[in-house]
Amino acid sequence: MTIKRTYEEINAKIKNGKAVIVTAEEIIPILEKEGIEKATERIDVVTTGTFGPMCSSGAILNFGHSDPPIRMQKVWLNDVEAYAGLGAVDVYLGATQLSERQGMEYGGAHVIEDLISGKKIKLKAISQGTDCYPRREIGTYITKESINQAILFNPRNGYQNYNVAVNTSKNKIYTYMGILLPDLGNASYSTSGQLSPLLNDPKFTTIGIGTRIFLGGAQGYIVWEGTQFYPQVIKDKSGKSIHKGGTLAVIGDLKEMSTDYIRAVTFKRYGVTLVVGIGIPIPILNSEIMKSVSVKDEDIWTEIIDYSFPHLKRPSLGKVNYKQLREGNITIQGKDVPVSPLSSYAKAREIAQKLKEEIIKGKFLLQGPIQKFPQKSKFKPLLEIH
Amino acid sequence: MLNKKVIFTFSPQNVERPVTYQLIKDYNLWINILQAKFEPSLGGKLVLELKGEDKQIKEGLNFVRQIGVKIELLEQEVIWDEEKCIDCGACISICQTGVLSLDKETFKLKFDYEKCIVCGNCVEACPLQAIKVTF
After folding, report:
1. Which of A113, A177, A179 to mutate to test the interface with B (most CBs of B within 10 A)?
2. Which domain holds residue A91?
3. For residue B108, which residues of chain A lie inside 8 Å, CB to CB?
């Protein structure tokens, strides 16, 4: 393995308008035609994208101080409670928090989407009152322009790989993987496969703390490994390997984001979540990295899991690859089962294209990790100790 | 031969008319009842698939109209808000009649109204509430 180029060289080419950039989908036929070595010489960056529901998302907001000032102890935004156990006028608004008035129809994710689209948001806060913050309640309206900071900070996004969900029970079940019909009536999955950022750099060579990314239409950063980070690869006897959920913690300026790439959704009888658009550019520093972005849907395997099983270790009903999933039908226990995604491949493709265009225009420069993620991580259950 | 999916809305005044029987007997139409909801004191709705000669379908529907039953074409009852839709696919595998699919090239959602029986499965599966059934 030889180093072909550095981040500095790639950024210099971007500034000169000479960088060659393709998406993780476009690279596949190029590699088939040119081979790894030749393509590594020619191509500088490969862009990836994903647009799916990511529950562990939320926003840090600072409202500014009122006169007289209040130390907000409980805060609601459009009747959705935000966590106020921080400084006087800072809150963390979680995407999955439900409205106290509308329930599952509206939640933290909807407040985030409404903030991005510039709508007025009703703010209510209460406090015990202190000598330095005498006020005990406030009711007003805010917009993203009226407040100091609105920072999207998502502790777990960009799942590397995820299960296919099915239901073997006799009843329809409502899950975060959508509605699952009884008797293996349907199946759902949720990654962008060959376009997925963490499947294109499975060893986390270029994706780490400090990597600059496309987040919700703005430029954001990876700030840590995501919660439940579990980068293990499981290989079976036939050589099929399954990547088990590497994840990302990401941050970006919500004020610069667009509702084209951040959307609130409700999964019936499950709740509210945020669909987040993430794109990560992979610099082709060497042929090893080019090899990793050559990944195709048929190389990426995942497990079919029975979500009707009410315990943590749900049974696996087999393995399937993303090419089979994209065809819309899979065979489980001899039954032909219709399958569909929850994460939008059309949007993932749009994000990878948009990121490519921004790099071509010189608006997006590459920033590599300042620190790598841990190589190993434990996936611990919660034990009940009495 | 024409194939049409229609929704008949009955009022309390005409709810007891044997419309299906008359369409079959007098107009020689092939009828498949997809859905029916009746409350004699309030009226009712009937979703039908009709097959027959162009002329007979026209005359049959005229007869239904004349007795005061409101007729709508089924695609007017299923509203898909394409602006809101993100082409995720959550509505696809839950549809038992194969109305919904992703285009093989663009991966954008396609809606084949011909196959729809207005069951409403897609309405509850859509995370963006982008599909509505007015029936």
Report:
1. A179
2. 64-147
3. 346
Residue A247 included in any domain: yes
What letter represents residue A177's amino acid?
A: M
CA-CA-CA-CA dihedral for A57, A59, A60, A62, to nearest 10? -170
A68 cis-preceded (ω within 30 degrees of 0)? yes
Residue among B90, B92, B108 whose CB faces A346 most closely: B108
CATH number where B41 lies: 3.30.70.260
| Residue A27 φ/ψ, nearest 5 degrees | -70, -25
- Which amino acid type is present at position B97? T
Residues B63, B32 share a domain: yes
Counting the structural domains of chain A, the total is 2
Find the chain B residues whose C-beta atoms sit closer than 8 A to any C-beta of A: 86-94, 96, 101-102, 106-108, 121, 124-125, 127-129
C-alpha span between A271 and A303 (Å, rounded): 24
Q: What is the pLDDT of residues A153-185, one digit of tens each?
A: 999 999 999 999 999 999 999 999 999 999 999
Q: What is the pLDDT of residue A3?
A: 62
Of the candidates A268, A275, A345, the beta carbon closest to that of B107 is on A345
Q: Please report residues of A whose CB lies closer than 8 A to that of B96.
A: 185
Distance CA B63, CA B45 (A): 17
- Whether the Cβ atoms of residue A192 and residue A331 lie closer than 8 Å to each other: no
The model carries a pTM of 0.91
Express each pLDDT in B34-58 by its tens digit: 889 998 888 999 999 999 998 999 9
Asked if A112 and A140 sit in the same domain, the reply is: yes
Q: Which amino acids of A are annotated catalytic? A: 132
How close, in Å, is residue B34 to chain A by CA atoms?
20
User: Do A90 and A210 share a structural domain?
Assistant: no
* Assigned token pair, B96: 């038992």
